[in-house]
Each structure stands twice: as structure tokens, then as C-alpha cells.
Amino acid sequence: MPFEKTLLITGGAGFIGSHLVRLLIDKYPNYHIVNLDKLTYAGNLENLRDIENRPNYTFVKGDITDAEQIQGLFGQYGFDGVIHLAAESHVDRSIANPMSFIETNIVGTVVLLNAARFHWKQAEGKLFYHISTDEVYGSLGDTGFFTEKTAYDPRSPYSASKASSDHLVRAYYHTYGLPVVVSNCSNNYGPYQFPEKLLPLMINNIRDNKPLPVYGDGLYTRDWLWVEDHAAAIDLIFHKGRVGETYNIGGNNEWKNISLVHALCDIMDELLERPAGSSRQLITFVKDRPGHDRRYAIDASKLKHELGWEPSVQAAEGLRRTAQWYLDNTAWLERVTSGAYQQYYAEMYGEAPGR
Ligand code: NAD
Ligand code: DAU
Predict the structure, then answer these.
(1) Ligand 1 pocket, residue 63 CB under 6 Å
(2) Are 152 and 50 in contact (CB under 8 A)?
(3) How far is residue 182's CA from residue 247's CA, in Å, rounded to a whole number?
(4) Which entry of 92, 135, 223, 293 is annotated as an active-site residue?
(5) Residue 351 falls inside a structural domain
(6) Which of 24, 62, 166, 337 gives a 20 to 30 Å CA spacing to 85?
(7) Which domain range does residue 336 map to?
(8) Residue from 136, 187, 255 whose mutation best tests the ligand 2 pocket (most atoms within 8 A of CB)
(9) Could you give the number of structural domains in the chain?
(10) Could you tell me if 35 and 92 lie in one domain?
(11) What is the mean pLDDT of the chain?
């Protein structure tokens, strides 16, 4: 039986991409899902072990900046749609080394756009879906929310590279009529997140009784979304979103970093059967991130009103599930924190993490 559609998912071996690929493979057995990933430090085929032998799944190791390879894949598979997640995604790494962010996030996106433009002469029924971040909007004060109309004001090399790619995607819509859609999402959390990001880093350090490095005064605010809720929103927008539109996605779940770390510490004490308060004692305030955005908060009402999406997992449950997943998957955690991670951590935090 031929497949009804063939979709290219870029970055499907990463954190959000692996949840999206799993969702699509399960929900659409009649779609052929082609996952293209470079397998950088953040990409891990272990994240997809449970679905890797499905008949509607193909993995291709490749680089979105490699125009010849990307053109070849479009020719070979005749993609009906692209959901583009591949990116360098960590703000601190972008501060240390902006160039790989420019290459992958900007140049790689243009390589994909060019291939879609070249191969989709008949663009009817095709869609290029670009996955982006709320960080393009910059920083909020104590009140207010980012809407789809908020002016772009990126502050880090990471967010500037994502802002640039968003603009290029929209430029291809306006200039060449390429059918595109963009979504900008808040902070995701859940299983398979690389432990350079706040929550898995803290979970890993609590396990090892290591200091918990909180940047600056810890009063920075993020809006946290359960990663499977993001994957569900992407599925919905891909199938029902209006071409040329932008949708904000958020958890309506604001936490100051220090409060989130406190909540996590208390859950970890319980799960590890340690005396109450022991993990909190590991908290250490460290030098702030340069250009640290003070507050992000998303107004996701457009997505709710147009497409009926709402986050489904509440923070208390999501945090507990996340902590439990890492404790149940220590082999995964130990593998990804061995090798190059040790050097990254030592350079970032001035000491080795656990193990
Ligand atoms: P991640 O770092 O976990 O995964 C990125 C994936 O892209 C990895 O599998 C990596 O191997 C792959 N990749 C990197 N460079 C590549 C290249 N040149 N060619 C092919 N593959 C390459 O990132 P994530 O957190 O899953 O984020 C996925 C996307 O969602 C990114 O575009 C990010 O900007 C966006 N986003 C992330 C969040 C979040 O909270 N994590 C929130 C909003 C938007
Ligand atoms: O808002 C969406 C963005 O969320 C995504 O686009 C990015 O890809 C993703 O990495 C995330 O960016 P943040 O910079 O918000 O996430 P991070 O986990 O790095 O940091 C969350 C907050 O915690 C931030 O205020 C910095 C702080 N922090 C982070 C680390 C790693 C600490 O205080 N200590 C730490 O060790």
C-alpha cells in the first residue's frame, strides 16, 4: 500500500523532535515519516528505540546545511510536508560559540526552504512548518504576554538566529508563495531533554548530591509546557493551521526559576527518600547568564480559539513525571552525561558534574 503522505521531520532525534516523531508514527500509520538528523551531541537515536522498526519510519543521518543531500532527499522521497525542528537549541552554548547557530539555524533553514521551493512547483497541498521559540520576542517586564503581534527583539545569539530563520520562512511565503506556517513556543520540559537545560541538569545534580547552579538572583521567569502538549499542538497546526499564519504555544504556567527548582527539590527528596529539605541545600547562586531575558510569558489564545488547543498536563504532575522518568532511565542519563558533557559542564560551571 502506498503511503498517503511522506513527511520530512528535521531534528527528530532531539528532545521535542523525538516526541513528535513518536506521536506521528503512532497516530498516522498511513504516513511515511522520514527523520533527518545530524546526531549532534543533542541528537540521540536511543530516544526513538521503541519506534525505530515501524514500517512507516525511516531515519536518515544528515545535515540540513548540506544542500546537495537535502535536494537529493526531496527528489528521492517527494515530501508532501516538512516539519523543521533541527537546530542548535541551547542559549548558553550560543553565547560561547555563535557560529554553529548561524550555520544550522539560519543557513540550514534556507537550504530547506530552497529545496522545498525547487521541488514544490505545484505547492498545492504542501506545507513547510517551521518550529520556533518565544525567545524571538525578547524579554517582558513583570506583566503582559507575548502575542503573535509582539515585535521581534531577540537578545541572545540563539534567539537572534531563530528570529532570522522565522523572518526567512515568512519571506519565502511572501516572495515565492511557498506555503508555510510558524509556531513560537515557550520552554518545554519532560523526558529525553538533554541535561544542559535547567530541569534535567538539576535532576542529574540532585541525584549526585552536586551543587544546583541557579543563575543570578533566580528571579527569572519562564512559562513551562509539557513536551507532549507541544507535540500535540504541532500536529494540530500542521493539519489545521492556516497557511502563512503564526501561532504562539505556551503552558500558561509561569514559574520563577528559584521556585521551580524548590518544587523540583521537594519532589526529588520524596522520590529518592531523602530527608525533606536536603536537595534545597544544594542550591548555589552562580554568575548570571549574559543578556539573560527576565521574563517570558505566552498568550496562546489564538491557538485555543482557532484550533481548540490547550495544555493538558499541569505543572505538579508534569514535574513529578519528569523527575520519575530520569530516575527510571539512569542508563540514558549516564550515557548522555559521559564524554563531551563533562568538558562542557566544567567549562560552563567551573567543575565536573557527577560521575
Ligand atoms: P534539541 O537540541 O534537543 O534537538 C535538536 C536536534 O537537531 C538534535 O537531534 C540535533 O542532532 C539536530 N540537529 C542539530 N543540528 C543539525 C543539523 N545541522 N542538521 C540536522 N540535524 C541537526 O532541541 P529541542 O529542544 O528538541 O528543540 C527543537 C526545536 O524546537 C528547535 O528548533 C528549537 O529552537 C525549538 N524550540 C525548543 C524549545 C524548548 O524548550 N526546548 C521551545 C521552543 C522551541
Ligand atoms: O523559551 C523557549 C526556549 O527555552 C527554547 O527556545 C530553548 O531552545 C530552550 O533551551 C529554552 O531556553 P532557556 O534559556 O529558557 O532554557 P534553559 O533551560 O537554558 O534555562 C531556563 C532558565 O533557567 C533560564 O532563566 C536560565 C536558568 N538556568 C539555566 C541553567 C541551565 C539556571 O539558572 N541555571 C542553569 O544551570
Answers:
(1) yes
(2) no
(3) 6
(4) 135
(5) no
(6) 337
(7) 198-221+254-290+314-343
(8) 187
(9) 2
(10) yes
(11) 97
> From CA 73, how far away is CA 115, in angstroms rounded?
9
pLDDT at residue 1, as a whole number: 67
Average pLDDT over residues 141-163: 98
pTM over 0.90: yes
Backbone angles phi, psi at 289, to 5 degrees: -70, 130
For this structure, is 134 an active site residue?
Answer: yes
The pLDDT assigned to 351 comes to: 75
Identify whether the C-beta of residue 261 lies closer than 8 Å to the C-beta of residue 214.
yes
* pLDDT at position 328 over 70: yes
Pocket around ligand 2 at a 6 A CB cut-off:
89-91, 133-135, 186-187, 197-198, 201, 213-215, 220, 222, 257, 289, 296
CA–centroid distance for 160 within its chain? 16
The CATH number of residue 139's host domain is 3.40.50.720
Residues 6+ apart with CB under 8 A from 73: 8, 34, 36, 60, 62, 79, 115
Average pLDDT over every residue of 276-293:
98
| Residue 344 annotated to the active site | no
Locate 343 and state its grid cell.
Answer: 568538558
- Cβ proximity of 186 and 250 under 8 Å: yes
Query: Are residues 204 and 133 part of one domain?
Result: no
Q: Is residue 301 part of a domain?
A: no
Cα-to-chain-centroid distance, residue 120: 27
Q: Are residues 117 and 30 in the same domain?
A: yes
Are 211 and 160 members of one domain?
no
Supply the pLDDT for residue 71: 98
Q: What is the pLDDT of residue 353?
A: 62
What mean pLDDT do residues 163-192 have? 98
pLDDT(99) > 90? yes
> Are 49 and 183 contained in the same domain?
yes
Say whether both 148 and 202 belong to one domain: no
